[in-house]
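Researcher: Here's a chain I'd like modeled. Treat it as a single chain, no partners, no ligands.
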Amino acid sequence: MNDPYPFGSAYSGESDYCESTKSAPEILDAQTKQLAAMAYGEASPKNNSDEMMALASVLVRQRDARGYSDIQTFAKKERTFSYVVSDGNVRYRTMMRASDEDIARNAGMQAAVAAARNALNYGPDKSNGAYFWDGADIKSNYANHAKVKRGVRFTDLSHNIYGIKESIKLVIQYQYTKKKNKKTGDVVVEQKEIARYDHLYESTAGVGGTIFWKFGQDYMNATHAKPYK
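Model: Modeled as a single isolated chain. Structure tokens:
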């Protein structure tokens, strides 16, 4: 497969683009730029190529799972999934407003473009099948974090890049059956456990400044939830 990071360093700074060459920068199509800007905005300031690659793959997976044919419609209709589209995120806004020349000069944005192209072509998935992610706020807002309140588990210690504690929220589902004693007429309610789970989210990767998640299988089996929401 072609090198998914053709623009060199994963970190911010100048790319190999040079004014003196007077070569025209590559023109980005709208879908690639939209996805690249979302991955760039969601990523940590480290401009880690693998992190942006993973984020882009999750965004495409969510787009497909929710039935959208393009990233622009997904971004417009699902604003609560990737908040950078509507919350004034500086990195997202900067890349969306950047010209092709500006993007060609910025190694971090170029890495985001490479990540978007990889995801749109269903290339290597650095998130390992994730549908969700979290950044540093899962540590800074641990006590009130929505995922923490619903239960998180790390499938590999290397995923726990912020050194947070796992959270266990045991849920047991029962089936209740009424049975009538034919002799006495008394009705007895029998209780039978049919499923249990103690977390919703399982880690799939920890890359750059992002932890990636998917729903745990016990939760999926118990609730028949859709994997993407």
